[in-house]
Amino acid sequence: MRAFVTGATGFVGSRVVKLLLAQGHEVTVLARSVAKAKGLGLPAERILEGDLFTIGKMREWIRRSDVVLHLAAEIATQKDEKKLWKIDVEGTDAVAEAAEGSKIARFVFASTVVVGEANGAVLKPDEPLVPTTMYGKAKQEAERRLRRMELPVVILRPSHIYGPGGWYAELVHDFVHGRRFMPGRGDNWWDVVHVDDVARALVLLAEKGEPGQIYHCVDDNPIRMRDFFEITAHALGKGKPRAVPVFLAKWLRGKGPVESAVRSARSDNAKLKALGWKPQYPDSKDAIHDVVKELIGMSPARV
Fold this sequence. Notes:
Blueprint: E1 2-6, H1 13-22, E2 26-31, H2 34-38, E3 47-49, H3 55-62, E4 67-70, H4 81-99, E5 106-110, E6 122-123, H5 134-148, E7 153-158, E8 160-162, H6 166-176, E9 181-183, E10 189-190, E11 192-194, H7 195-208, E12 214-217, E13 223-224, H8 225-235, E14 242-244, H9 246-253, H10 255-262, E15 266-267, H11 270-274, H12 284-298
Parallel strand pairs: 1-2, 1-4, 2-3, 4-5, 5-7, 6-15, 7-12, 8-11, 9-14
Antiparallel strand pairs: 10-13
Helix pairs in contact: 1-7, 3-4, 4-5, 8-12, 9-10
């Protein structure tokens, strides 16, 4: 399989690329940093230098590919709403435009199930989501636009993605340096998933996802946000985080990021499992200590 990947050097994308290569697939990536892309084990001729709006050059590469994995995005912690919309909506438009008219078998889009308050409901992929955060609205709008195009779109909606990097590395860094705060009481449900399980799901969808379908990617055991934070602190040998009023957390961290954190929801992964996916990390309570250990081992000075 010949795969074209955006967001290849990111938290999720880097793992997707390495997994594709390990399975013998041919990979071409769009990257702003050629040096970082080479660090994934890619030769220079498989790296297209540019951003999401490099439409003409992307079109050339996509027409030589079997699948596109569009993973580049701003995440829920991004406070700049204009930048979030530009990358997550307009950037997706640009990649889709580059793919139009190609003969790709699948256009895999990494969306999200973390779109807004669900009051603890179990979110299913074939039921509509109600976005309330700008991040959620942007991802839902990108999905809507993709579905209007004549592309074989397959959508993966991961939940809160944790692992040795991304926002979780920032959380661990804060905890290590005494900033052990939690927005609100923490009794809201979190649907979480390990980054390696997301990478495996994305590769699976590239190989045999059904165009037109949406899949939710989450582990088997939802967790209260308070428990997730406390287990992280315990893994670091630190005391429990201190609850901060939501209004104050919004002032410190930004309205959208905090609303994404305090929303309460669980998710249904049955449809993805029916395709053959099974989480290697079914319960975050069992995985957090190892993730923290890996983070500290990767860069003790930075943590």
